[in-house]
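Field: sequence (string)
Field: structure_tokens (string)

Example rows 1 and 2, in order.
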Amino acid sequence: MPPSKIMIIRHAEKPPNPPNKSGPWDVKEDGQSGGGKSLIVLGWQRAGALNAFFAPYKSKPANTEIETPHHIYAANPKGETQRPFETVEPLAAWLKYKEGSSQFNVSYDVGGGEKDMVKSVLEHGSPVLICWEHDHIMPDIMEHINKEVPITNYAHITNPFPNVFYLVWVLDLKGGKYTWCSVNQNLMAGDV
């Protein structure tokens, strides 16, 4: 049985592309330069706020479309970017999910690992959260999901994933098919 719910987010805020001379610049968790592959401070703030969004203390998420994930997938931090991993690592730590376990899987690369990642995701029956690089969410991840488990409103999904940091794409399973919707995190100033 595939997951009852799949939630997909883009990594949190990053430096501008192309970079400018006045910043903001990316930093690693330890405060050192991220070399262009990490989050900016605002992104780290969003990463921390995701704990309360997905897994509030002794409570259910406030948004009824969201469930606390039993499994988290993030792009391999040794690959092209560390941002997806950095975005959900605080949530995984909060939930006591160990990196490299089935609860916090970081085995797949951006731009080639999506098909195998989706195959792994679909082996879980409980809610899954995926954090990825936005250019590969649609069509790569969504197309692979749709090939395995049809998405009833696939034709209505925005392509590409919007160039924003505050969306959660939610797939709910009912009658052997998924239905897609988009949810706003509403965590940071400027989330529209």
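Row 2 begins here:
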Amino acid sequence: MVNELSRKLLHGTGIFIVLPIIYLTEVQLMQILAFLTAGVLVLHWYIDFRHIRRKRINDSVRSILETFGERYDELSEKEYEKFEEDFFQSIKKEFLRDGEQAIFLPTIYFFSSLLFTLVFFGKGYLFFGIIALTMGDSAAALAGKYFGRHKLFWNREKSIEGMVGFAVVTFAVTLVFLAIFPQLALFAPIKLAISTGVFGSIIESLPVLDDNFSIPLFTSLALYISTII
């Protein structure tokens, strides 16, 4: 439970990325998100596919050394692999739930979702997708863990209490955000806050895709549809 609390508190700090986004142009933001997505993809390959990577690199190094008549030091290789594995396992213990394996995959989903949101809907919608994911999703997880008693019939892993927690916290944070930055309102602040909370909580409750990808993108999509109908 402590690990889950620390994970969600860390997750919630992602709300602060909206601050630099406000002062970046869409072109600058697109370049940054594309760079971050590509960088995390490399890290995902390096860490989450480390067993494949080690075998290929070690086999290549062994072949090169043997070609020149040198001896391959398997002991040093094993010591380095143990050090590397212990380090990665310590990271997984702190930031991943039991059963989760990929360290950087959620981050890939997150950055790619922000990039798609920016490309399809523009920067104005991005803020509310981020609020929904960072604050709403964290609130839903904690409310579900501590108070969840009534499971959703369409997703037995989620609860009504979690949905309510998501909607209420997202509504409140969105209102505070719009009070500080009223120029970013897409439409009437109260309606926007309610829409972000309700749409986001529904999307979070669905047993499809990864929350880090679906919540920012599809919350923004729902808000976009709300502005044109």
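free_text_note (row 2): The chain has a mean pLDDT of 88.
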